[in-house]
Hints:
disordered N terminus; 6 helices; 2 domains; alpha+beta; 6-stranded mixed sheet; tt1808, chain A
Amino acid sequence: MTDRLRHSDHGPFRADQLRDGDRYELSNGHPIYRAPAGWQHASGSVKGGLVLDSDPDVQWTGADVGVSLESGTLRAPDVVVRATPPSGDSTWLTEAPPLAVEYAGPGQDERDLKDKIAELLAAGTRQIWVVRLVGPQRVEAHRPDGPMKIYTASDVLEAPGVLRNPVPVRALFDRDAAHDVVLRNLLQRRGYDNLDDVREEGREEGREEGVIDAILTLLRGRGLAVDAAIEDRLRACHDRETLQAWLLNAARVEQAGLIFDI
Length: 262
């Protein structure tokens, strides 16, 4: 049932005739069978999805999502990236995603891949990354406004306006490299630039806790009553200069609550 040629005539099928889970795409109304993915293809799609979904500027990604560009076309890139989550009752996406990724392994139908790329770019997709699983590690980047460019394993890919961070080509192939990128992205989603920032914050918090414990020990050692409200206020403070001033006060005040008078 697979037709490897791009049809100028319109075929007999529409996207709304296909159901979620059907193993077909449509090109101008003609069905294209999609067989189960091989292990390299499937593993690659997971890596690519994780890397892209974790980017701090990405709000939604999907794997094998049907994109119905018009009634007779239904394409399902391995990974798609959108600026906003989909809405509405439609089963398929009805707008071309700004970024799509295809993993091309052994047995790839090159003529259909070419058609798929052309259809997505014509519909508004800004970039399509074709990750080549056969031969040297490389990614082909297709754009509507220029020739295809090849990026090798030592290069990085960029998608301005879609992704905040560059994507090392190796992260789309290698599990450890993918995890490194995901860690960086997730840290940035939580307000950290990198893992060193997390470690430094931990050291800062440790120093703050040490000063707070010293204040409490000094107050109690002087026989002053420290209630829960005083301890809670101390532990809520994260300004080192303020804590140091309170520590000095703890050595001379006659009531514990007076340490906060600076």
